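so my prof wants the structure for this chain in the tokens format not the other one, which i didnt know existed until like an hour ago. anyway here's the sequence
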Amino acid sequence: MASSSSVDMDPDVARRLFEEGATLVLLGVPRGTELGLDCKSWQVGPRFRGVKMIPPGLHFLHYSSVNSPACGSEIGPKTGLFLTLKPRDVILASWDPKEEDLDFSASKNEEEVSRIRATLQELDPYLGPYPYEVMRKWVSLSDRISEELANNLQPLSGRICAFSDVVPEVQMRHTKDRAEHPRNDTACQSMREGLDRLPRMKVREGTELRFSDIPKKTYPPGATPAEITQCSMDLSYALETVLEKNHHLQPLNLLGELQFAFVCFLIGNVYEGFEHWKRVLSLMCRSEEAMRTRKDLYLGLIAVLYHQLGEIPPDFFVDIVSQSNFLTTTLQDFFQFATGPGVDGALRKRAEKFKAHLTKKFRWDFEADLDDCAPVVVELPEGVTVD
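here's what i got, hopefully its the right format
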């Protein structure tokens, strides 16, 4: 690696971590590749063979291939995967130059893993130490993500990619199919017409993130217009639907899903992670009744958000998060509901402290008048009309 850990470590502690920590042996990774573990990344040097002294638990390995200097040294899109490591684990992977990806199949070969384990002392000079200076940050961003949850949310392909792998909805394998498809050329009269003629694409099966589906309809079947309006202002019904369908046994896993989406975006550069983070956050912050009945879920939400918002670069708010004032308006609703009647005293107090913290740190104004007169736009079921 191009840089080493900035943490001064006692030799005895380092030796114990080397013996008890997990090791990632990554062979053949091209020089110049950007590779990282959790919240730290490096540029791979000529001697790199992997990472040692990794604390047991969940980790996010991420890397970007790079073109040779002759081809401009351009960096490719980031690829990542979650790994759960046990004490003294040895995970073995080799770089596949054709796929520009790591191949972990050797880790299933016990003889090969045993051989590598026996030579760890010889490999030691070529292994970079885990960046312990960012361990606290990583734990604060991922402590709600269990191994099972990460496996359930990761794509079936096992890789989280910054750019979606897409294929045409219609394959058009035959000349006849292509001839029938309208051409996208100078005959187009407008940009819109040209875009409409482009082949429709879909995400390649098995490569999509498997997030919980956030329902577009926030009200139960057969709801009256009054119930629809109520369920559009208080999203508790939709939240309970998501919890029942996806996290029935462990409702707090929704917080893990929120962390998973955030890590995919912040570290993995996956925009879909940001979009899902926004959807889950909006759902939770606008569920007034749920705040009265799910105290632990909302105490956990405040803790998760405290750490997430502390890691976002300040200029990032200007570029993305503050679009349409998403965070301030969403959190304004949350603070209004969390300090309302029937909310547990501990949750109310924690929400007030969190509000004061955000106001001081980001200078956000949560006291602006809510536009109570604004109409609530709701979607009525087919056949239902309002006079």
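also thought this was worth mentioning. The chain has three domains: 11-142, 166-203, 225-362.
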